[in-house]
Amino acid sequence: MIWWMTVAALLLPALMLGFRFTEPRSAFWFDTAALICLYAFGILCFAAVANTIIEGAESLTEIHNLFLSPVWLTSGGYLGVYVLYRSWIDLFRRYREM
């Protein structure tokens, strides 16, 4: 499992980067997807904390429910890949400026 996650962490940002240079409009959609995922990620975290405070729920139970949410996992996974993709863009941009 860790092997596939490592390969995906290397391959997906590289594919996004290549697609960005072959189809420049894709950068807008990558950024839009990241913004949507960021909102979903934040709202789910907020809801878990609010539920813990308002209802007096057990915080560890709420956190584990959050960790099992498919929306939270998907948005967090995309944000991880997106951050790597943006890091590569920044690295290439700085290299060209040298």
Automatic annotation (TrEMBL):
Name the residues that span the membrane. Answer: 32-54, 66-85
Organism superkingdom? Bacteria
Keywords for the protein's UniProt record, in alphabetical order: Membrane, Transmembrane, Transmembrane helix
The protein's name is Transposase
